[in-house]
Amino acid sequence: MAWLYKQPGSANWWIGYRVNGKQILRSTKTADREAAERELEKLNAVSAAHKAGSLTDEFVALLTRKRRSGDTLRAAITQWLAECKDLSPHTVRKYRNVTDDFCHWLRATDKAPLLRDIQPALLAGFLREKRANTSTATAKLARRVLSGFFNYCVDNSELPISPVPSSRALKLNKDSKSVRRAFTLRELKTIFEKCPNDFWKYMVLAGFYCGQRMGDLICLPWAAVDLEHKQVRLTQSKTGKAVVVPLRNELADLIAELRDKAGPVKPADAIWPEQCERYQKFGAGGFSNEFYDEVLLPAGLVPKRPHTAIKRDGEPTGRRKATSVSFHCLRHTFVSLLKVTGATQATAKELAGHATDAISDLYTHVPERELNRAIKQLPPIAI
User: Fold this and answer.
1) What is the pLDDT of residues 168-184, one digit of tens each?
2) 277 and 202 share a domain?
3) For residue range 206-262, what is the model confidence (pLDDT) as tens digits?
4) Domain containing 5: what range?
5) Of 47, 65, 83, at which residue does a domain stop?
6) Among 175, 206, 222, which residue terminates a domain?
7) Which residues of 353-374 are buried (b: 16+ CB within 10 A; e: fewer)?
8) Pair (169, 217) in one structural domain
9) What total of structural domains would you count in the chain?
10) Are 81 and 102 contacting, i.e. CB atoms less than 8 angstroms apart?
11) Which pTM does this prediction carry?
């Protein structure tokens, strides 16, 4: 039986249900309680019909507006993109570009291929060609987007398993000399010292003590922060996974100061409204450049770079030279130091919001006291 609930930080109603023992959570895409209850009734009707043995493809199509097993790739992608409408326009645009490229590469039509006919070899061919003609980052982005789409298909019982090969199997990094790494504790303290303003102090503290991605931290709403119970509750924009992270005192104190300075706010308002709006319009590029130029460079961790694209044989390549450190390294550091200070792999995965099948099979929920203990074991970086 499915259930209706409110997700912290979301104005919409969500539905939860289980498929073969696996919990599935999805948004109804509406804040209207009556409309959400109608969606819940439809899902419960499908469940009842399934138990009664009368669930047909036609019946599912009538209730859910999609077929059970005969969807074409294009139809499934259209459905997925429609359910991504609550994400930022920039993110949806990236998803659409990647899936359009994949469909074009396959010469997909409205009639073929079927979703169930997409094999790992097809995806590997597309991603390897993408890597040969573009950059490692572009190929990895394509793989992440397609993984999100096919995981959605698995979660909705449209496929038994995802056909997307692993990054290691694809060898997308084989000619890349730049590998992301974790920061040392000394580097972390220097980075925090060099932060030029409250925004970057918040980003560094939140990046390290919460381990979340740049975009989720930039657009974090006040409703996601529970200062009374010292928790951050958010739904990751990349994966849709709900994450609860205990707040370290240093970060809680900074957010409390920001709250006092902000004046009257609504729960749905972003902590950093101007930065959030800029991120949603233009993406992470500008913030990554600021972090490089205004934080990492003064900290002595990266070389000064020209504000032009690197050249090969005298011609611009369209991208700058990659470095081994970036804002995302705070996430690497978070996970690495959690493990160094005694947290289990399951705890680190729960806090970071990683959702690999191997880990999700091992546990369903890590006790809150273990999450609190793991965060408290992290070292201080504010001086």
Assistant:
1) 777 766 444 445 678 88
2) yes
3) 999 988 999 999 999 999 999 999 999 988 887 778 888 899 999 999 999 999 998
4) 1-65
5) 65
6) 175
7) bbeeeeeeeeeeebeeeebeeb
8) no
9) 3
10) no
11) 0.53
